[in-house]
Amino acid sequence: MRISIQCAAEIRTGYQVRQGLQPDPAGTHLVIQTKDIDGDNDHRLIVDNLDRITPGHDASAQIINNGDILFLSRGKRRFATLVEGLPMFPHTIALSYFFVLRPNSDIVNPVFLTWVINETEIQEELARAANGTTVPFVTKQSFSALEIELPPLEKQDQIARLYQLACRERLLIRRLERQRSEYLRSISCMLYEQAIAC
Description:
Helix content is about 35%, strand content about 20%. The chain is of the alpha+beta class. The protein starts with a strand and ends with a helix. It has a single domain (about 1-150), classed as Adenine-n6-DNA-methyltransferase TaqI, Chain A, domain 2 (Alpha-Beta Complex), CATH 3.90.220.20. The chain has 5 helices and 11 strands, in the order βαβββββββββαααβα. α2 crosses α5 (about 155-195). It has helices at about 5-10, 110-120, 120-130, 140-145, 155-195, and strands spanning about 1-5, 10-15, 30, 35-40, 45, 50-55, 70, 80, 90-95, 100-105, 145-150.
């Protein structure tokens, strides 16, 4: 069945910073920015990098939980990120250029929804919906109305598991390539040092 994203998840905008972001080591909230999303690793959230801030106004409506999804609405990288690994305290918020999705668990698997938003077909629709030339953006209205194909939960779960396995495989391949490169570099340096010592 086809369903709009707004029927699959509650959609909110992130926290609006009114006077510039001021990191505060003793802040009451963690804050998610674009720098905290690993674009080379399936748009995963890097929890260890989050800054702390003390919001200048009430941020209770923007609190993020594990299992929520972030969608970057501004710029040319219109990706979705599943929120995982957040600590229970302090509270976490995301900046206003993110839409925050809270999936309806009765009808949609959060991992599946993340996957489908990042797939080519939906990405092409998002590109067509984007406004602006210097910094393209997708409006909340356009994003909310976007329709996706929603299979039964059992099928969603299967797709989600395959997606997670594919992400894990890509991560391991990248790690192996990095270790191989470091190994070859160390061998090259050793051979070079031996050559100039002769």
